[in-house]
């Protein structure tokens, strides 16, 4: 595995940070990207301190020129984890702010497009002969819910990107894997969605016995990535037991 390189976007928190830890543990050199340099620097330090290979590279995935410069500076990429993303608000279609929809499209769809396009030459030419692109979409990429419009539309876009790319790369030594998590209790996802309102964010998980954790999702990502190269897990939907659909959640109280 030495020098096999995994690039992880959104590695400064939640699912991305947990995935970086698990892929480092699996023997990958991990390249940590996100906008918050202090967070990824600290994680790189933690991982190198534990004997792993890790480097931090601050990056805004919506900035195409920055993404291209980042890709040009990489000597190798075997695995790309497109994880950076998120939701803004729960406004109905009738009154939602188009600026929020644009922001969600930029990070959840164009961010994936930018990084994937920039790293595809490295992935198809990877010395291991086993390139892997992971798109962390969501169950919101497969069904809608009231108040979810902008996020659901964006994650459907991420889903379509993954499906289309898999068709287009068929015959090349690159797998395209989509991971679609349901409810995951991470520190920041709901907080970002509700613009820092901790009370509203906490309500998302209220009474749910065991929402998924970032580690649960990272575990599914690491499992798909570490299957033999000819095994392509096209789509993995993972939810907590208490959630049967985007709108059917069992709450204890
Ligand atoms: N939590 C859930 O319930 C859930 C469910 C299904 C799918 N997901 C998806 O899983 C992924 C990770 O979510 P999470 O729960 O771990 O949330 P999170 O902790 O809020 O993580 C989001 C990550 O994306 C990064 N990011 C946001 N905008 C970025 C940009 N423009 N450029 C680069 N990085 C950017 C953030 O880092 P910086 O702010 O440092 O840039 C952060 O590391 C997201 O795509 C989310 O949509 C989450």
TrEMBL record:
It holds the Pfam family adh_short. Residues 4-187 form the Ketoreductase domain. InterPro entries: KR_dom (IPR057326), NAD(P)-bd_dom_sf (IPR036291), Sc_DH/Rdtase_CS (IPR020904), SDR_fam (IPR002347). Keywords: Oxidoreductase. Belongs to the short-chain dehydrogenases/reductases (SDR) family. This is Oxidoreductase.
């Amino acid at each position: 595995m030495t020098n096999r390189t995994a690039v992880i976007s959104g590695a400064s928190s939640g699912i991305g940070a947990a995935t970086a830890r698990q892929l480092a543990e699996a023997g990958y050199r991990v390249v940590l990207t996100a906008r918050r340099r202090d967070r990824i620097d600290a994680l790189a330090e933690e991982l190198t301190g534990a004997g792993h290979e890790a480097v931090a590279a601050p990056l805004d995935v919506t900035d195409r020129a920055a993404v291209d410069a980042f890709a040009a500076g990489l000597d190798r990429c075997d695995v790309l984890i497109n994880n950076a993303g998120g939701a803004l608000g729960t406004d109905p279609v009738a009154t939602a702010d188009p600026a929020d929809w644009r922001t969600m499209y930029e990070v959840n769809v164009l961010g994936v497009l930018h990084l994937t396009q920039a790293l595809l030459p490295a992935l198809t030419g990877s010395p291991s002969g086993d390139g892997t692109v992971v798109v962390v979409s969501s169950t919101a990429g497969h069904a809608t819910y009231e108040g979810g419009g902008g996020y659901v539309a964006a994650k459907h876009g991420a889903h379509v990107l993954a499906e289309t790319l898999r068709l287009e790369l068929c015959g090349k030594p690159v797998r395209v894997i989509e991971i679609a998590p349901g409810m995951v209790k991470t520190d920041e996802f709901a907080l970002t969605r509700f613009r820092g309102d901790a009370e509203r964010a906490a309500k998302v998980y209220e009474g749910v016995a065991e929402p998924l954790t970032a580690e649960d999702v990272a575990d599914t990502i690491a499992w798909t990535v570490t299957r033999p190269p000819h095994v392509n897990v096209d789509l993995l939907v993972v939810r907590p037991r208490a959630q049967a659909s985007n709108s059917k959640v069992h709450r204890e109280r």
